[in-house]
Amino acid sequence: MAVGELDFDRLLKLRLVVARVGEMDLAKWWNTRGQLGRLGAATVRRGFPRSHYFAQARSVFAAAGFRCREVFDPPQSVTLWQLPGAIEEEFETHWERWLDRATHWKPFFEELEALKGIDLKAVLQSFDLITEKDSEALSKLRRSAEGRAVALPTPFAATDQCVTSLALGFAWGEPGVVAVPYARLNNA
């Protein structure tokens, strides 16, 4: 799968915002409480002074991915936390670069720490991560009958728009009830 069209900084930001909104002190989707908030920063900073923001992120990403697979794990599909292997590998190659530029990321993480709202669409707009076109696409999505999933209407494409839809689809969740957005792979 070609990954050249993806902006990996944007993917990281999308994952971070969804991860923070889903924490127990906000939307209550996965079992982390303020790990990406101020308390998490204060706690983790002691052991990881240079990289604490990214250590916090890894922790919450793991919890979010686990919870989403527990709720809905469709075969031959992708979610925000489980993209095709080539994309996940490329995401990992960016990790060291992000660590090297940790001071560049500090304002973003500080804004994330201060987050209080659970309206994911509004939060993504406040971080300038979605457009009107993205909002329009969200209005066309629906939760599944059992309420556990949100299917994207087209197969997964390694584009910023598709990844944004996977993130924005979480807006169909409710406090305490996550709805997992997913897209089918072309070969499914």
Protein topology:
Layout (H helix, E strand, L loop, with lengths): L7 H14 L16 H8 L6 H20 L5 E2 L6 H16 L1 H12 L6 H7 L5 H9 L8 E3 L8 H9 L11 E5 L4
Parallel strand pairs: 2-3
Antiparallel strand pairs: 1-3
Helix pairs in contact: 1-3, 1-8, 2-3, 7-8
Task: Give me some keywords for this one.
about 190 residues, 3-stranded mixed sheet, globular, single chain, mainly alpha
Description:
Helix 8 links the parallel strand 2 (149-151) and strand 3. This protein is globular. Helix 1 (8-21) crosses helix 3 (52-71) and helix 7 (132-140) crosses helix 8 (160-168). A three-stranded mixed β-sheet has the order 1-3-2, with helices on one face. The protein has helices at residues 8-21, 38-45, 52-71, 85-100, 102-113, 120-126, 132-140, 160-168, and strands spanning 77-78, 149-151, 180-184. The model has no long low-confidence stretch (mean pLDDT 90). The chain has 188 residues and is mainly α.
